[in-house]
Amino acid sequence: MAALQGDYIKRITWPLRLIELESSKKEDSARLSDEHRLIEARLKSGAFLILLDERGKTLRSLEFARTLEKCANQGTPHVQCVIGGAQGLSDSLRARADLILSFGAQTWPHMLARVMLLEQIYRAQ
Questions:
Q1: Nearest to 36 by CA among 79, 96, 77
Q2: What is the separation of C-alpha 81 from the centre of its chain, rounded to a whole number of angstroms?
Q3: Where is 63: in which H helix or E strand?
Q4: pLDDT tens per residue across span 105-122
Q5: How many CB atoms are located within 10 Å of the residue 93 CB?
Q6: Pick from 59, 78, 80, 96: CA 20 to 30 A from residue 46's CA?
């Protein structure tokens, strides 16, 4: 899976940076709060925020590409995508999102969700 991820990263010509954050907290509620804090600290103001969540919108690849194209045309300085932890994403992050995106009702492992997201970004460019 790491090789596939690396392959997509090489193919994407847009500026791209992957950041993995992991809470050191063991208790679920503390972990969710800590993950929220870590994510919030990395979000750039003015960025178009996409959250991956099984309860989000399912978009065809072309619709996703048009969303990113619209961001570029409107001069959006950054697009940031967030994949939540095992407890999901906090309600306040969900409220802040410009798009909540779903790859279906199933729960996907992070590595697979990341590769699927990279593939859609690659298609969009």
A1: 96
A2: 3
A3: helix 61-73
A4: 888 888 899 999 999 999
A5: 20
A6: 59
